[in-house]
Amino acid sequence: MKGLSVGEKLFIEGGIAQDLRTDGRRRLTYRPISVETDVISQANGSARVRMGGTEVIATVKAELGRPNAMQPDKGKVSIFVDCSPTAEPTFEGRGGEELATELSVSLERCLLGGKSGAGAGIDLSSLIVVEGKLCWDLYIEGLVVSSDGNLLDALGAAIKAALSNTGIPKVNVSAEASANEQPEVDVSDEEFLQFDTSGVPVIVTLTKVGRHYIVDATLEEESQMSSAISISVNRHCHVCGLTKRGGAGVDPSVILDMISVGKHVSEQLLNKLDSEIAAAEADEEE
Amino acid sequence: MEFVSPEGLRLDGRRPMEMRQIRAEIGAVSKADGSALFEMGNTKVLAAVYGPREVQNRSQQMSNQALVRCEYTMANFSTGDRMRKPKGDRRSTEISLVIRQTMEECILTHLMPRSQIDIFVQVLQADGGTRSACINAATLALADAGIPMRDIVTSCSAGYLNSTPLLDLNYVEDSAGGPDVTVGFLPKLDKVTLLQMDSKLPVDIFENVMQLAIEGCKAVANYIREVMLESTKKLEYCRGA
């Protein structure tokens, strides 16, 4: 992040204190979001999300694999994020790896639930083909193309859009094989099953600058943050995951306050995102 | 395998001398100084240029010319099957080098001493001809960043399969094992800056194939000029001139 002068820092902080940020937004307003689906034709599902100067691409690829022995009735989902040097010259070489790992882990925590898969936004049992033998492995890949703050929310939104764009090929298990043999399958390339993405949460990051907190911080605002809390909330207003970043300590009562504000904001974001995804999909069909 | 049908059509329905559809968009990354998206059929490449700016690593600073750097990265989802390759494998390093040398040649580096220009190309979808697409995208991004250049460099590939010269190979044709000639061309100066070929080819046929690739480069150059003109007009309009 390029250095800010003392004046600029005061301007950002003062603006936030007065509920009028440098780009004219209020504390709890998002930048305009635009969603485009099916941008990568090789993937089963993909989406590009733009939030102001931030741009991310998420893709979903499905591969047939074996379910985990501990959970024979569940498929597997993993999330990888990559930071392209096009977004920031410092991401060159291995420079983006640290941020990429931080983002992937936060996303997994916010979207995939616990180790057992309980509380996951994606219904893992819907990925099973033959119990204990065959399941779909979903590989979700995010790519940060342009970065202007709030990458986590943008990636969360892109993954949600990509999942609703995903078609999993229908699998016909031909003959019933014996207990320890791998069953033979016929993957259809015409029939696709859609996912139920209504349970996939959205991520809202509240960034604390000074005594106030804001949503959808830009890169300049993020450089002034003391701490940030990312909350993932689903359609039923349940908190699905939570990450706190930044070193500064926060009073527990403030955290609870932030969570309730986050829940409120997430409702608006969810509605906005759903309508954007629907519009993008309608666009694509035309 | 038959790559050209008796009717003279290729696997994707093109004629031998036909290019894939190309599309370019300037200003795809808002934070960069210059950026462009370039598509050749299913191949999709994003380029971003940062600079000219202060040299990051002092020891690399040159007092008589600008330092040009380039990095080529492929997105994990860009190929057909999923891959997780470590960064900086040999192929990427080689392509980074090729792009850097090609672009360095056309940038007027002596005008910007003690500064650095970074070119980052990111492959979003790979379907053959990524090298060419990267060079075309980089040219557009450099032009968008307002970096002084001798000429625009454009690139296109051509191959030779089933005794027919083919323009702009896609992935299937590229991996067929035939020769693949990639040409980088300066259309105004009428000069070839990049020439690569794998596999072998008789000299007289090579001449035809190279000529075909050059024709492809010229076609790309015309399109790139159109896109740049349009973007300049837009800028002029924004200024209220």
Automatic annotation (TrEMBL), chain A:
Subcellular location: Cytoplasm; Nucleus, Nucleolus
Pfam family of the protein (one): RNase_PH_C
Record GO terms (molecular function): mRNA 3'-UTR AU-rich region binding
Domain Exoribonuclease phosphorolytic: residue ranges: 30-169, 199-263
CDD domains: RNase_PH_RRP42
Cytoplasm as UniProt keyword: yes
GO biological process: exonucleolytic trimming to generate mature 3'-end of 5.8S rRNA from tricistronic rRNA transcript (SSU-rRNA, 5.8S rRNA, LSU-rRNA); nuclear mRNA surveillance; nuclear polyadenylation-dependent rRNA catabolic process; rRNA catabolic process; TRAMP-dependent tRNA surveillance pathway; U1 snRNA 3'-end processing; U4 snRNA 3'-end processing; U5 snRNA 3'-end processing
Gene Ontology cellular component terms for the protein in this record: cytoplasmic exosome (RNase complex); nuclear exosome (RNase complex); nucleolus
Annotated keywords: Cytoplasm, Exosome
Keyword Ubl conjugation tagged: no
Similarity comment: Belongs to the RNase PH family.
Protein name listed in UniProt: Ribosomal RNA-processing protein 42
Origin species: Cucurbita maxima
From TrEMBL, chain B:
Source taxon at top rank: Eukaryota
Pfam families to which the protein is assigned, alphabetical: RNase_PH, RNase_PH_C
Name this protein carries in UniProt: Exosome complex component RRP41-like protein
GO BP, one annotated term: nuclear mRNA surveillance
Keyword Coiled coil: no
InterPro entries linked to this entry: ExoRNase_PH_dom1 (IPR001247), ExoRNase_PH_dom2 (IPR015847), ExoRNase_PH_dom2_sf (IPR036345), PNPase/RNase_PH_dom_sf (IPR027408), Ribosomal_Su5_D2-typ_SF (IPR020568), RNase_PH (IPR050080)
Keyword Cytoplasm tagged: yes
Subcellular location, record wording: Cytoplasm; Nucleus, Nucleolus
Primary residence: cytoplasm
Organism: Cucurbita argyrosperma subsp. sororia
GO (cellular component) term, any one: cytoplasmic exosome (RNase complex)
Domain Exoribonuclease phosphorolytic, first and last residues per copy: 18-148, 151-216
